[in-house]
Design a protein that fits this description.
The protein is built from 7 helices and 2 strands, in the order ααββααααα. It has 135 residues and is mainly alpha-helical. It has a single domain, classed as Arc Repressor Mutant, subunit A. A two-stranded antiparallel ribbon has the order 1-2. Helix 1 crosses helix 6, helix 3 crosses helix 6 and helix 4 packs across helix 6.
């Protein structure tokens, strides 16, 4: 099963409202890199620094994923990150936090099938390793 199919299967049990957005484009945006680290690694680091380390750890680990709500995402991330994603995805900035709240636990869970990030601690590295398994 492909990475995106796995993400979609995991999302199907949730009530996530992605507003018809393409999950592949969102994942691509989150896995894109700038300044040496992927956006998802940067977001995860910021979330951990802003009191969400236990939730992020649950997404990486093998147990159940802790839920997160849009207000937590909105509070943790700076407006620049939200604005950047809004522009890149072509959506209103007010929709970014709810979409991230729905997708981050699922995407991070799928990127870490062994319950840990790559050898260098990077989710991007983990993602590349997961994707190599489908090639």
């Amino acid at each position: 099963m492909s990475f995106l199919n796995s993400v979609m299967n995991e999302l199907s049990g949730s009530n996530a409202d992605l507003g018809g957005l393409d999950v592949g484009n969102i994942a691509k945006s989150l896995l894109s890199s700038g300044g040496g680290s992927s956006r998802i690694d940067t977001i995860v680091s910021v979330l951990k620094q802003n009191g969400m380390e236990e939730k992020v750890t649950s997404w990486v680990g093998n147990g159940a994923n802790a839920s997160v709500d849009a207000s937590e995402i909105q509070s943790a991330l700076d407006s620049g990150t939200i604005s950047e994603l809004s522009s890149e995805l072509g959506i209103d900035a007010s929709k970014v936090a709810p979409i991230l709240a729905a997708l981050l636990p699922v995407i991070i869970n799928q990127l870490t099938p062994d319950g840990q990030a790559g050898n260098d601690g990077s989710l991007l590295t983990s993602g590349m390793n997961v994707l190599k398994g489908f090639m």
